[in-house]
Amino acid sequence: MRTTPERAAVVADPLVIRHLEFLGGMASPDGWRPESALPEIAFGGRSNVGKSSLLNRLVRRKALARVSQTPGKTREINFYLVNRAFTLVDLPGYGYARVSKEVRAQWRPLIEGYLRGSTALRGVVQLIDARREPTPDDLQMLDFLAELEVPAVIALTKVDKLRRAEVAGRTATLARSLGLDEDQVIPFSSVTGEGRDELAAAVVALLGQAPWRSE
Ligand code: GTP
Ligand code: MG
Question: Which of 15, 105, 120, 189 is geometrically suited to a Cys-Cys bond with 194, CB 3.0 to 4.6 A?
Fold first, then answer.
């Protein structure tokens, strides 16, 4: 069969994973973080939005990041080295109601401190559940990213739970309500793998940008 160039472009994996390594966790704003200055892409979103599942899909591993039975458990910022070339940064999920006020109060300075302080940060993938409206926490996070002027894309998670015909409409509506281009919103499902290659391409594009703030 003859493949057209377009077809070949769809088939090629934008992010081939050759090497993966867990570097460690950052537990407080002034705590340990990896020494390497390799570029970082951070993943944020409310607890249970599907962040660990998305990371595992992205790197094609079953259990690089732990998928939780008990939401709200991840309290550290976890760093994963990919291909010895860049780092994926798993931010703790916010907004989980059933953890104590004290625990919730720790997340914000940790996340904000990391986002403000990392000179290696190249972009953020913000996860939003396709079936829900963005929460006040989501909007605050997006405002904060806009204030920092960090390049961001949205992954619309769990689209397998929507009817097929709903996905495009939901994507367009969310993009409009957040004032984003539609191509900044990527429908994603960890169950079916939908959106994996688009997300991988977006991550590669963010990595390819010049640092947006001076180091
Ligand atoms: P915390 O680390 O606890 O904040 O959660 P998280 O955002 O990392 O979510 P996680 O990946 O642990 O998934 C939470 C729950 O949603 C689990 O029961 C997953 O199996 C489920 N889930 C995650 N992604 C998808 C998806 O794309 N589709 C469906 N149907 N379920 C999903
Ligand atoms: Mg998680």
Answer: 189
Ligand 1 atom nearest residue 67's Cα: 12
Task: Report the 10 Å Cβ neighbour count for 90.
Answer: 23
Reference 36, options 28, 24, 44, 27; nearest CA is 24
Cβ 192 under 6 angstroms from ligand 1: no
- Ligand 1 pocket test, pick from 43, 53, 158, 159 with the greatest ligand atom count within 8 Å of Cβ, gives 53
The model's pLDDT over 161-170, given as tens digits with 9 standing for 90+, comes to 999 999 999 9
Which phi and psi (to 5°) does residue 42 adopt? -100, 150
Closest CA to 118 of 45, 196, 44: 44
Q: Which residues contact 30 (CB under 8 A, 6 or more apart)?
A: 113
Sequence ranges of the domains in the chain: 20-29+36-207
Buried b (16+ CB within 10 A) or exposed e, 177-193: ebeeeeeebbbbbbeee
Instruction: Return the pLDDT at 40.
Output: 97
- Give the C-alpha separation, 111 to 17, whole Å: 27
> Does ligand 1 come within 6 angstroms of the Cβ of 39?
no
CATH number of 20-29+36-207: 3.40.50.300
Least confident of 34-38, 54-58, 116-120: 34-38
